[in-house]
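Q: What would this chain look like folded?
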Amino acid sequence: MNILYLIDISGSTSDSFEGVPVGDLNGDGRSNTILDAEIASLIALTERIRGLGFSAADVTVTVIPFNGSADPADASAGGIVNAATFSLGAVGEEAIANHLRGLNAGGETNFADALRAANDRLQGLYQGIHPSGAAGFWVPRVVTSVHGDR
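A: My prediction, written as structure tokens:
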């Protein structure tokens, strides 16, 4: 099973989150931001998926952060951030959490580029090409974590 997380890291995600406090998960010096809440929810979802008992070899998680574009790679996005694919399992779960904790808010919100990036990644999966290079049929799942006016 392939799971794809689209996570909004636009500037508006640095606003305060008004739910259950989650702390400063990305170490940006601001606690309980929308981005912190997104990170907390995706870490919890990853733990939940792993807890369902799937073999680590059978599950991958791809994280695509986006702001003004998918895979933002400029300073306004808080540094170079690229899509990354991980195998599930204890090591993968920690790698996913660390990747999410490394995200910083900045930039505008552009859902179109994020959806295009997800579609491109999913097209490869539907063609039987796993991000690791393995052949076979892979059923993707998409989880979005967004904040914005539109």
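The first strand starts at residue 2 and ends at 8.
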